[in-house]
Request: fold
Amino acid sequence: MRKARLFVAVLFIVCVAFSGIVTAQDIHFTQFTQSPLTVNPGLAGTTVWIRAGLIYRSQWGAVTDNPYSTIGASFDIKSKKKWLKVSKQTERYRKATDNGFGWGVNLFNDRAGDGHMNTLQANLSLAYQIMVSEKSMLALGFQGGMMQRSIQFDKLYWGTQYDPSSSSGYNTALPADKAITGGTSSFVRPDLGAGMIYTYKKNERYMRGNDQMDFTVGAAMFHILQPKYSFLNSSPIEQLYPRYVIHGMATIGIKNTALAIVPAFLFQKQGPNQELFAGTLVRYMLKEDSKYTGYVKGASISAGGYYRNKDAFVAAALFEFGSYGVGISYDFNVSGLSTVSSGRGGYEITLRFLNPAPFLFSQASFNK
Reply:
């Protein structure tokens, strides 16, 4: 528990040190732990053998007829030869002792506003894991991909089209703003990122003791190439700022109970904008997984909240059964926009698959 207290203390210090304004050019997910490759390419195949997930986010439905919506998908896997099967009957696994590779793919599509400004990105991540000890691991990851952006200018109204005699106040037959002349409505750019993570796992000292503890912390940088990001031929050329990420997550079992605390934090900085997001879930184990027969599947339910600095309070819940998980969250807006949003920010839904199931792994470590 000494390491657990140290981790929580470090998390608190990081949160205070980096508190600030909450805006960012990139997309962001509330359930960021369910979309690992948008946070750090070093997570590819590092903390799991096989992981797949879908995530959908919709926001600002209270202030626009065209809510901002984002859908993402990811898959990552650890090199299979680096995993050892413990039991053929229960399909239980434990991690091997040597170093290995992990790789993953992720993509997302984001559509924003009346102009249907669309961002489509597809990435491939590769990570290499190094065993530091029987309980800890370092991983370094790289990510490469392509980004495509588009906008429908004809769905936007411009000041040059203002016509008080029109019923709508605008006349689309009039010429659009000259700023878009010579611009483009679509472009494709290459993109690169890199990151490093450290993860630690301590087993239960005895079956059903629930005194296990694990945590993962990491840092990453995205948009290393700083691609051109504007639809307009403006000068100087507008480039996408690099995005810097610091993140962490832990699972801390409360000894001799069915409860565990699952804190997490995320700090992102992109140009003059930054985002700080922190909070915790409390997990209750509904059912233990069968340790020997494999016929009984473990299940848990988690609930809690997060705070995105100067932007939103978030209520979140996660239900896990065997290898499957379903998460839901809702952002209650508390920024200056709450005057028109009435506090309604947006909701997010996630679906997740893990193999091995997290309950089968409760007494495994990197080396057993």
In short: The chain has one domain: 2-49+71-299. Residues 2-49+71-299 form one domain.
